[in-house]
Design goal:
By secondary structure, the protein is α/β, with parallel strands linked by helices. The chain has 14 helices and 18 strands. Helix 1 packs parallel to helix 4, helix 1 packs parallel to helix 11 and helix 3 crosses helix 11. It is globular, with a radius of gyration of 22 Å.
């Protein structure tokens, strides 16, 4: 059993920012990384993070861009907070203090900015096309060397520890739900109880539950599912954002091709070499919000019967050294025998970012006492029905920072839980070892069902079929989980199907198309 003031589950930008800020304020922190420290969705982010633009930009203009992309469903307080405080924190904390090596303007020495879709100012700080990796490296180095932070790697969230559910006192049933920490599965196979005054969920997204995704295999919605099981308030689950441009190679995992390519002027072409966006978005073309670009691509592919469309980078060659500006993109293409300087790159939309999540306030507090949530697992209301490009890293940074401050302030008035009043982890009696082939087949069913029935274009019939199929599979997986020894593959499968059910239910209940939730009926 481990004790700490603040338990942070997840070690991407949100989790590391929260851990670092809490530690700086004097708290003892336990930071949990699902894999190695540094392996997170943050490291996959290519395009950049919203910073400070020139005098043509303003918090008001940034707020307007966020709200426009969010299709009118953004929470105004969250938008204003990020637009006012976020860019300054990015500059002062990431660049000046942590030394993130943003590309600099040769004349001014300030971070160079680029444009991205739906932004009306060049305000995106970047490190070539590997911005997330650079930010993650700087944060990982900082938390690894802080004396107040203990790091546990290769550890999975099993469940949140809550009162009354895990209490030995039957009278606790009449009190409010309180989060006291979490059960964690260590790579050794041992389940460890981490007891904390305050717990911060920073577990990232759930894109892996879709057949086509830019997310890594670990993005299985662990924190969202655990919060749901603990009865936290969860909102906006129908809003799953799809990224327009992932590299399409049949039989291979999709690889993200940054939004900045289109921001700098790359074109989308159909199989006949025609720039088809003029038919769908004549005003904004490739720079329309992501949901509209994805739908245009999907409809173009359906009309042509082709499996992909193409991204033409030739308009950029006169403006910049593409290999130098976008080395990650070039490596991904070259690895598949594609020369983006000589031929258009095949692309398809892919599940990218979850705009819903565990409901939180402006300090990251959830509806459960003792639990905070930050980053993609949380729903601050910032994104509304569709996320503005490069706003997610800034949201993670700002809410990670703010939640840590609120959590540490809480710790001053909270005593450590009496562990004798909490039930220890109870392993399965006479467990049956699961067949890996069954787990793989269940994942195939989940991912294909979600892509076909709860993807870019939705109908009532598709959603009902998906909900029925996933509901049947859910009960089988729950029985599977209760009879087997706890393991990472089984935990992820259980979490993934819970998240699939949440999305299907929300999408079916919302008959109004908005943002990245688009109903054909």
């Amino acid at each position: 059993m481990i004790h700490c003031d603040v338990l942070v589950i997840g070690a991407g930008i949100a989790g590391c920012a929260a851990a670092l800020r809490a530690a700086e304020l004097g708290a003892s922190v336990l930071l949990i990384a699902k894999d190695r420290l540094g392996d997170s969705n943050t490291a996959y982010a290519q395009g950049g993070i919203i910073g400070l633009a020139d005098s043509t930009d303003s918090p008001e203009l940034l707020a307007k861009d966020i709200e426009t992309a969010g299709a009118g469903l953004c929470r105004k307080e969250a938008v204003d907070l990020l637009a006012t405080e976020g860019p300054r924190l990015c500059r002062d904390f990431l660049w000046k203090r942590l030394g993130v090596p943003f590309d600099l303007n040769a004349v001014t020495g300030e971070p160079e900015t680029t444009a991205e879709a739906a932004h009306h100012a060049r305000r995106i700080y970047h490190v070539k096309d590997a911005t997330g990796e650079a930010i993650q490296t700087a944060l990982s180095n900082k938390v690894a060397n802080h004396p107040n932070i203990q790091i546990l790697t290769a550890a999975c969230l099993v469940d949140l520890i809550t009162v009354p559910h895990h209490s030995t006192d039957p009278l606790a049933t009449y009190g409010p739900i309180q989060v006291k920490g979490a059960y964690l599965l260590h790579y050794s196979g041992e389940v460890v109880a981490a007891i904390a005054k305050r717990t911060v969920l920073a577990t990232g997204g759930l894109g892996y539950i879709y057949m086509h995704t830019t997310n890594p295999g670990g993005a299985t919605g662990d924190g969202l599912a655990a919060a749901y099981r603990a009865s936290a308030r969860i909102v906006n689950c129908e809003y799953m954002q799809f990224h327009p441009t992932s590299l399409f190679i049949p039989g291979r995992q999709r690889k993200l091709l940054t939004e900045a390519l289109r921001g700098e002027g790359a074109y989308l072409l159909n199989s006949d070499g025609c720039r088809f966006m003029a038919k769908f978005e004549p005003a904004e073309m490739e720079l329309a919000p992501r949901d509209r670009v994805c739908r245009a691509m999907f409809e173009e592919m359906a009309h042509s019967g082709k499996s992909c469309v193409y991204l033409d980078l030739s308009p950029l060659t006169a403006k910049m050294d593409l290999g130098k500006r976008f080395p990650t993109v070039f490596r991904a293409c070259n690895a598949e025998g594609i020369d983006p300087l000589r031929e258009p790159v095949p692309v398809v939309p892919a599940a990218h970012y979850f705009c819903g999540g565990v409901y939180v306030d402006l300090d990251g507090r959830t509806s459960l006492d003792g639990l905070f949530a930050v980053g993609e697992v949380a729903c601050t209301g910032l994104h509304g029905a569709n996320r503005l490009a490069s706003s997610s890293l800034l949201e993670c940074l700002l809410w990670g920072y703010r939640s840590a401050q609120a959590a540490v302030e809480d710790c001053k008035h909270v005593s450590m839980s009496d562990t004798s009043a909490l039930r220890p982890w109870q392993p399965v009696v006479n467990p049956v070892t699961p067949d890996p082939l069954l787990i793989e087949q269940d994942w195939n069913s989940i991912r294909s069902t979600m892509w076909n029935y709860a993807g870019i274009l939705r109908t009532k019939d598709r959603l009902q079929r998906g909900r029925s199929d996933i509901g049947y599979l859910y009960h089988r997986i729950e029985a599977f989980y209760k009879s087997a020894p706890v393991s990472r593959p089984l935990l992820e499968l259980r979490n993934g199907i819970i998240c699939a059910r949440l999305i299907l239910k929300a999408a079916l209940q919302n008959s109004r198309s908005c943002g990245c939730h688009f109903r054909l009926d």
